[in-house]
Amino acid sequence: MAKPKTSLTAVVCRAEELDTIAAVLPIERRDELAELLNDQDVETLRHLVNQGMGDNTLRALTSDLTYLEAWALAATKKSLPWPAPEALLLKFVAHHLWDSQRRESDPDHGMPADVDENLRSQGFLKSVGPHAPATVRRRLANWSTLTKWRGFDGAFASPSVKSAIRLAVRAVPRTRLRRSAKAVTGGVLAKLLATYATDSLRDLRDRAIMMVAFASGGRRRSEIAGLRCEQLSVEPPIPIENGAPLPSLAIHLGRTKTTSGEQNDVIYLTGRPVFALNAWMAAAKIENGSVFRAIGRWGTVSRRAIDPQSVNAILKQRVELAGLERGEFSAHGLRSGYLTEAANRGIPLPEAMEQSRHRSVQQASSYYNHATRRSGRAARLL
Question: What pTM does this model have?
Answer without folding.
Answer: 0.58
